[in-house]
Amino acid sequence: MQRNPTLFPDDDNGDVLWRLASAGDDLSIPREIDFTLDFDTEQSALDCGMFLFRNELKVQLEAPDDEDEDAAWTVLVVANMLPRHAEITHFEQYLQDVAEHYAGHCTGWGCAQQAGLPVGN
Length: 121
Hints:
This protein is α+β, with helices and mostly antiparallel strands. The chain is built from three helices and five strands, in the order αβαββαββ.
């Protein structure tokens, strides 16, 4: 199978989608895609998570690992969508813009292949 640059552009999102397709995943099937947003403070993570929740997104707050002083508070946003480059990139940019408003940043996304093997960036 040869990589189609229209479906799988040469960037991080295109690379992940290409790996999924190369592994035999049917990218025409919607699935839950997890996006992670990291924050230095619990309050920033809570504020961002509440904003996203009020805008009808599925969110989960994850506390940092107690053993790692530099670990971030994470807001996990779960979106049920088709794994398509344009849609993922657009949603990821939206989440980055929201996270920046609360002094955080979007650190990437991941989803499960049909075979159940995790893949992400």
